[in-house]
Design brief:
binds coenzyme A; 5 helices; alpha+beta; globular; Aminopeptidase
Length: 166
């Protein structure tokens, strides 16, 4: 239970920096703890960090990675794609997801993108709230978007947000 003293303690802001293949162990840990059986496996994360046309941002608190977000770009496209975002469950609810999202939007603008899109599991209440509060709209149901060997297919919601290129 949160005490009055805890409430008065300043929660430090995470530092944001670009992630690299050097961070794969920490990102794998966060991915597994945040997504469980739906986590990206090691080769997929390696692809994300080493091969894909993407930028990964990590949030660091006291020298520990507590969250990450990865945004993909396509050649000759002004649309960026939020591929993944996850926060260590011990650090959720502290606005880390929100600042990671803002950072990938900023990077998308720097890359001259005018729209960012993403998909989320239709029953992912926390993620949908984060996206709604951050201005994502134009909900589109994508049937059977997620496939897992254990749970079968699940629907996704696709959302987008227009970006103001300066
Ligand atoms: C979704 C996720 C990234 C959010 O990160 P977070 O750091 O916990 O979220 P924040 O503290 O930045 O909250 C941002 C907003 O989302 C809302 N939110 C976050 N968690 C919530 C929850 N469990 N229930 C309801 N709303 C929630 C907050 O109310 C907040 O709204 P506000 O800006 O009006 O205050 C995090 O819960 C997570 O890693 N989940 C598991 C992985 C996942 O589902 N990723 C998304 C895949 S599409």
């Amino acid at each position: 239970m949160m005490t009055k003293t805890m409430r008065m303690m300043k929660i430090s802001e995470p530092l944001l920096r670009r992630g690299s293949i050097e961070d794969i162990e920490e990102i794998t840990r966060i991915e597994n703890s945040a997504f469980g059986s739906h986590a990206y496996d090691y080769p997929s994360l390696r692809y994300m960090l080493e091969i894909a046309n993407s930028v990964t941002v990590v949030a660091v608190l006291e020298n520990k990675i507590v969250g990450y977000a990865s945004v993909y770009f396509r050649k000759n496209s002004k649309i960026s794609h939020l591929e993944s975002i996850a926060v260590d469950p011990d650090f959720q609810g502290r606005r880390i997801g929100k600042v990671l999202l803002e950072e990938v939007e900023k990077i998308s603008v720097e890359m001259k993108c005018t729209l960012i899109i993403l998909e989320t599991f239709e029953r992912n209440i926390a993620a949908r709230k984060l996206y709604k509060n951050s201005g994502y709209a134009n909900e589109l149901l994508v049937p059977d978007y997620y496939h897992t060997p254990y749970d079968g297919s699940k629907n996704a919601i696709r959302l987008s947000k227009s970006l103001q290129v300066k």
